[in-house]
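Before relying on records like the one below, remember that each one covers exactly one chain. Contacts with other chains, cofactors or solvent are not represented anywhere in the record.
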Amino acid sequence: MKRAFLAAILFLFMALQAPSAEAAGNPARGAALYAEDCSACHAADTDQRGPHHRGLFSRQAGSVPGFDYSDALRGAGFIWSDQLLDAWLADPEALLPGQDMNVSVEDAQDRADLIAYLKTLQP
């Protein structure tokens, strides 16, 4: 029951966020934003304060082996998509209450650019 409720909330949130996730992203600008705003905690290939990002779009949230995720992220039960990542970047706590990333990206174009860059990190 609890999982079904969470799934319904996630679906509704994704539906409301979908237009900003569909904005055309610029991966070069996203790489610059990543270096400036994300690299203090994340890297493409190594776990830092946050988990590595290579292969993000093909894995389940909270599943990098050996990384110490919050209970919220470990139990999220979804695979990262453009829409979920857009919602996460916009407001991680709204998407998954109790998560540990307390940084958000307010600008929709910045989120689209970051997502476009992260897609270049697929294996």
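DSSP finds six helices and no strands in the chain.
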